[in-house]
Design brief:
- The strands form 3 sheets. The protein has a 5-stranded antiparallel beta sheet with strand order 2-1-12-11-10, with helices on both faces. The protein has a 5-stranded mixed beta sheet with strand order 7-6-5-4-8, covered by helices on one side. Strands 3-9 form a two-stranded antiparallel sheet.
- The two termini are 42 Å apart.
- The protein is α+β, with helices and mostly antiparallel strands.
- It has 2 domains: 62-123 and 278-448, Beta-lactamase; 129-273, no CATH class.
- A hairpin with a 5-residue loop joins β4 (129-134) and β5 (140-144).
- The protein contains 11 helices and 12 strands.
- The protein has helices at 2-20, 62-73, 111-121, 166-176, 236-247, 275-284, 288-301, 308-321, 345-357, 365-368, 432-448, and strands at residues 83-88, 94-98, 103-104, 129-134, 140-144, 185-189, 254-257, 266-271, 343-344, 394-401, 404-412, 418-425.
């Protein structure tokens, strides 16, 4: 196709020159346009570069699939009481059910529920807003947290592509503040969120840590200590205020927590990337802070408190309202970090199936956030070199807590059939690597198995 494009360009260029120019040696004014037309090669219909899944691919036989996976589900590395569900996406038929209705610790696979709730309740194109308003006195500005933890201290963000930046917010503030007015005080209004800053079931070392922080309505860079770092901060709101002060050229300004004056003039506004993108980032990176922020937005949309309790209630209500059976499910946070969260494997598999077959409407964006085995996210280093299963056959959300290992996603069988699966092993006692490898073996076998 590139060669044809060059030929067309050359022919078009010659013809165009012929219309504009006459030969200096031909007084009759004959032009290159009188040259006989060139003959172009015949080009047939293009073959699609991307092919859809076959609608006639055979589905695995439940008895054969169950028999094939039984030894892998019984692996010593997974402990006792493994819960598993495998569904045929096209038909919804249950292909495997091993204690699938029994609630288990989901760990970060709970983010699947939060993501579906965010996509269906808020909509894929919704954004989170951060504002700066005038304070009580000249020289005071108030950063009003809108629950967007991706607000970035760098342009562009080092962690969240498409994120709003503190620099863009500060530029608006400088333009709105009377010239020559020094900024001496930055107030951070975190009042959008309520309740405790950490959830029941979080461990003392979870916040701050490399994966979590106190959940506040104002934060920068996912509540990280510095842009692109792993460590999270113990004071995300203050960090956000300090970042704004720096961007305003007022590094010496006092930064405190407080509330914006009623009816205060807006000095600047920025918006996050769309919710669909935020969901992708929360799933691919298993970002706890982003998941908690999305859960609170669901609570706000459902007129519930933007707290851990309110957001957990809102997420489950939204998922149930979308037609998913949530019987036995209990959430106390939006990230799955709490050990008090309990979700049946069949609920997770049903969410994935509903997103894949379109019955959950806007939830289709969930699939693009699932890490691809052997390629990206939390599955980047968990793939094999078999061309039948690598890369892309398995896309799944991981979940890891002490003694808890989970994997839930979609897989394309060697016959081209799309399946949804959820595996919960919450009684492991051996090495983390061995448990993950055992789960990976099950997913790999699903990809390789015609099982008929």
């Amino acid at each position: 196709m590139a060669v044809i494009g060059v030929v067309l360009l050359l022919i078009g260029g010659v013809a165009g020159l012929g219309v504009l120019l006459t030969s200096k040696n031909d007084p009759s004014g004959a032009t290159a346009a009188s040259v006989p037309s060139a003959k172009l090669p015949h080009v047939g219909n293009a073959t699609p570069a991307l092919a859809a899944l076959s609608t006639t691919a055979p589905s695995p036989d439940p008895a054969v699939l169950t028999r094939t996976l039984a030894p892998l589900l019984g692996a010593a590395a997974l402990g006792s009481g493994v819960k598993a569900s495998v569904l045929d996406v096209a038909t919804g038929n249950v292909l495997l059910d091993q204690s699938a209705a029994d609630p288990g610790h989901p760990a970060s696979t709970a983010k699947l529920l939060t993501s579906v709730a965010a996509l269906t309740q808020l909509g894929p194109s919704a954004t989170l807003t951060t504002r700066v308003v005038a304070g009580h006195a000249p020289g005071e500005v108030v950063l009003v947290g809108g629950g967007d933890p991706t607000l970035s201290r760098t342009s562009p963000s080092q962690t969240y592509p498409g994120a709003a930046t503190v620099a863009a917010l500060a530029a608006q503030v400088r333009a709105a503040v009377p010239a020559g007015t020094p900024i001496t005080r930055v107030v951070v209004d975190d009042s959008l969120f309520s309740g405790p800053l950490t959830a029941p079931g979080w461990q003392p070392g979870d916040a701050p840590s490399s994966y979590a922080a106190p959940v506040t309505a104002a934060a920068v860079d996912g509540a990280r200590v510095s842009p692109g770092s792993a460590g999270r901060s113990g004071q995300p709101g203050i960090d956000a205020g300090a970042a704004l002060a720096d961007a305003l050229g007022a590094s010496g300004a006092t930064v405190v927590l407080g509330q914006a004056p009623a009816g205060a003039k807006t000095l600047g506004t920025v918006h996050s990337a769309p919710v669909e993108r935020l969901v992708e980032q929360a799933l691919t990176m298993s970002d706890n802070m982003l998941a908690e922020a999305l859960a609170r937005q669901v609570a706000i949309a459902r007129h519930l408190p933007a707290s851990f309790a309110g957001s957990a209630q809102a997420v489950l209500a939204t998922v149930k309202g979308a037609g998913i059976d949530t019987t036995g499910a209990t959430l106390v946070d939006g990230s799955g970090l709490s050990r008090q969260d309990k979700v049946p494997a069949r609920t997770l598999a049903a969410v994935l199936r509903g997103a894949a077959d379109g019955k959950l409407g806007n939830a289709a964006g969930l699939l693009s956030g699932l890490p691809v085995a052997g390629f990206d996210g939390t599955l980047a280093d968990r793939g094999d070199t078999d061309p039948k299963t690598y890369p892309g056959s398995v896309r799944a959300k991981t979940g890891t807590l002490l003694g808890v290992h989970a994997l839930a996603g979609t897989v394309v069988t060697e016959d081209g059939r799309l399946l949804a699966f959820a595996l919960l092993a919450d009684g492991t006692s051996g090495s983390e690597t061995a448990a993950e490898s055992a789960l990976d073996d099950i997913a790999t076998q699903l990809a390789r198995c015609g099982c008929r």
